[in-house]
Write a structure and sequence with these properties.
The complex is a heterodimer of chains A (158) and B (93). With 158 residues, chain A is mostly helical. Chain A has a domain of 60 residues. Helix content of chain A is 56%, strand content 0%. Chain A has 4 helices and no strands. In chain A, helix 3 runs antiparallel to helix 4. Chain A is rod-shaped, with a radius of gyration of 38 Å. Chain B has 93 residues and is mostly helical. Chain B is rod-shaped and about 75 Å long. In chain B, helix 1 runs antiparallel to helix 2. Classes of the chains: A mainly alpha (158), B mainly alpha (93). The interface between A and B is medium-sized, with 22 and 27 residues.
C-alpha cells in the first residue's frame, strides 16, 4: 500500500508522497493522500520534493538567544565588579606593604634594640618585615593578573 | 583578519617597566652605600625613597620576570590555537 511509508526515512523522499500546502514539516506520521493518475502523481511529487528541498535550504538560521544578542549589542561589556574589588585589593596590598615596611624601619630609631627583652613592638616589627615583601609582590601580581585576564578575553573588533 | 591585542602590548610595557625601574632603583641605592667622609647625611625625602626602593625592588623584579614568563605562555597558547585553526578545514567546504 502506497500510504505506508518507511518510518525510518522522511516521507517526502519516498515514492508516492504528495506534498500539501501549509503542511507542517514533521517527519512523524505519513499524511493521507489520494491516488493520483500515475503521470500526474510523478510530476507533482517531483515538484513537491523540489519545493520542500528549496524550503529546507532557505530555512533561516536558528534564532539567536536573548543572552547572545544582548552580549553582542552591549559594547563595551559591563565591568566585572569582582575585578574592581581585585584592583582595590592589589592597590591596598602595594601601598600597605610599603607603609608597613616604612613603619617598621622607623621603629629602629625609637626603641633600643638590645637589652630590653622581647617587646610587642619588636614582634610587630619582625612581622612587618616578613609581610611587606609578599604583600607588595601579591599586589603587583594582582594588577598584572587583571591585565592578563583582559588580554585573554580580548576579541578583535568586527 | 588578526589584529594586535593592545593588552599584550600593555603587559610587555608593564613587565619591562617594572624590571628597568627596579634595576635603576637598586643602582641608585648603591650610590649611597659607600659615602665619603665629607658627605653629609641625605635628607628625609631621600631616606624615604631609599626605604621605598628597599620595599619595592625585589617584588617588582619578581613580578616583572613572572609577567614575561606569563606572556611567553600566552604567546605559545595563541600560536597553538592559530596552528590548529590553519590545519582545520574552514567550515562550509
Amino acid at each position: 500500500m502506497a500510504d505506508n511509508f518507511d518510518p525510518r526515512f522522511d516521507p517526502r523522499f519516498q515514492p508516492g508522497y504528495v506534498p500539501g500546502p501549509g503542511r507542517p514539516k514533521s517527519d512523524a506520521a505519513p499524511l493521507p493522500r489520494r491516488a493520483p493518475h500515475p503521470v500526474e502523481a510523478e510530476a507533482s511529487t517531483l515538484e513537491g520534493v523540489r519545493d520542500d528541498v528549496l524550503a529546507l535550504e532557505a530555512e533561516p538560521d536558528p534564532p539567536v538567544t536573548p543572552s547572545e544578542s544582548n552580549a553582542s549589542e552591549s559594547d563595551p561589556p559591563e565591568p566585572n565588579p569582582l575585578e574592581r574589588t581585585l584592583l582595590v585589593i592589589g592597590a591596598v596590598l602595594v601601598v600597605g606593604g610599603v607603609a608597613v615596611a616604612y613603619w617598621a624601619n622607623g621603629l629602629n630609631y625609637q626603641y633600643p634594640s638590645f637589652g630590653t627583652g622581647l617587646s610587642w613592638q619588636q614582634l610587630l616589627q619582625a612581622a612587618a618585615w616578613a609581610l611587606s615583601a609578599p604583600m607588595v609582590t601579591a599586589g603587583l601580581a594582582i594588577g598584572v593578573g587583571i591585565l592578563f585576564r583582559r588580554a585573554i578575553t580580548w576579541k578583535p573588533p568586527e | 583578519m588578526r589584529r594586535h591585542n593592545p593588552w599584550i602590548g600593555a603587559l610587555w610595557l608593564c613587565a619591562t617597566g617594572l624590571i628597568v625601574a627596579a634595576f635603576s632603583a637598586r643602582v641608585w641605592q648603591t650610590s649611597f652605600w659607600y659615602p665619603s667622609s665629607s658627605e653629609v647625611s641625605p635628607g628625609p625625602v631621600v631616606v624615604f625613597f631609599q626605604e621605598l626602593a628597599d620595599a619595592v625592588v625585589s617584588p617588582a623584579l619578581y613580578v616583572g620576570f613572572g609577567t614575561i614568563a606569563g606572556l611567553l605562555f600566552l604567546h605559545a597558547r595563541q600560536r597553538a590555537r592559530r596552528r590548529a585553526k590553519e590545519r582545520r578545514p574552514p567550515a562550509g567546504t
